[in-house]
Amino acid sequence: MIKFAIKGGEAERTAADASAQEQHIAPVPRISIQTFCETAETAASMQAAGEDRRMAKAHLKIQMGGITAAIEAYRASATPNVVMIETEGRGDALLSGLDSLAEVCDAGTRVVVIGRLNDIVLYREMVRRGVSDYLIAPVEPLDLIRAVSGLFHAADAKPVGRTLAVVGAKGGVGASTVAHNVAWAIARDVGLDAVVADLDLPFGTAGLDFNQDPPQGIADAVMSPDRIDTAFVDRLLSKCTDHLSLLAAPATLDKVYDFGVEAFDSIYDVLRSTVPCIVLDVPHVWTGWAKRTLIAADDILIVAAPDLANLRNIKNLVDLLRSARPNDNRPQYCLNQVGVPKRPEIKPADFAKALELEPMAAIPFEPQVFGTAANNGQMIAEVSSGHRTAEIFRQLAQTLTGRAETKRVRGGNLLTPLIEKLKRRQA
Fold first, then answer.
1. pLDDT, tens digit, for every residue of 139-195?
2. 81: Cβ contacts below 8 Å, ≥ 6 apart
3. Is it true that 30-152 and 162-426 share their CATH fold?
4. Model confidence pLDDT, tens digit, residues 274-296
5. CA-to-CA distance for 364 and 355, rounded, in angstroms?
6. Each residue of 138-154: pLDDT tens digit?
7. CATH of the domain spanning 162-426
8. For the chain, domain boundaries
9. Which of 35, 120, 380, 382 would be a feasible disulfide site paired with 84, CB 3.0-4.6 Å?
């Protein structure tokens, strides 16, 4: 009797579907995965997949020997949640090996096979026997992660819960202001439901910036990990606009906020399952949970002022995050408070040359509009919807959510593209 858990699906995917899945692969839940490889190349891909941020909760064990080793291993031990088998077998030999494996597998175990035959008839036979997925070698780390993630998330479900972590390269560079204005633009201009999570519990300013003073917030969730579920987190959210909610920080000093590395994981999991866009306002600290938050985010925006210390800190952050997130997009950065009178500054071009990456935007120093917005508990676009800085935040929101082509905004001069277009027409 076959014991594999059957998971149906189409053998072929369109290019559009594959592209969409690559854009967003849901994190793998807290499961155990055992792999049995036959080649060093597949074992190396497995190892790289296990080090990816999306696999942080999973326990992965890699062994050699293929399907034969798997059968022997499970004769005397229980099977894990997922078994991944690499096989160079063909036709009847492969199916016979799967039949033998089924005899020692627990009913709830899901099996993924990695083979070398691109054969729809063989695929259908494996599905009939209860194989959950079939991958054609050679496989890349993202192929493996996508396959495991797909076992626990509906293939036709719309991707939800992309997280954008915004952090300052240095204290006082205005990262929170950028995070809040970008989140507001995502909700109003892009039209996505979004949540701002203020992670600076003792000194967070999100409540002030959105003119909110909720009695509960993110501290209640962190301090009550056993109570965290969708209904509980929903009660903690403060509504700012029709599409924007706030998970506010208490901003009080009556207690010390020392957290473990995984303190915010449950909150992120709940938000991911219910909200399309989560903007994480990450304070300028370097703790276990802060590092974990940045590594686990889908997208990262570093905010910096145009000076040497910020340049150094951006480089250190980008280097670490690229190393920890080899299968993700490179962290982005923007410059803020550009053009302070009489202050020597490093030019955006010099930042780009040192980092080998252009800034997403250069936000000009505008003390009048920023000060008015801060004191009134408003966003820049609420103070002056046509202001050039409001347009920068709109462009950042569109680019970071994938709703527009990337546009680099330098020096806040938004008229340059229009002028160039008019010149081309006249020519």
1. 999 999 999 988 887 655 544 578 999 999 999 999 999 999 999 999 999 888 899
2. 31, 32, 33, 108, 109, 110
3. yes
4. 888 999 999 999 999 999 999 99
5. 21
6. 999 999 999 998 888 76
7. 3.40.50.300
8. 30-152, 162-426
9. 35
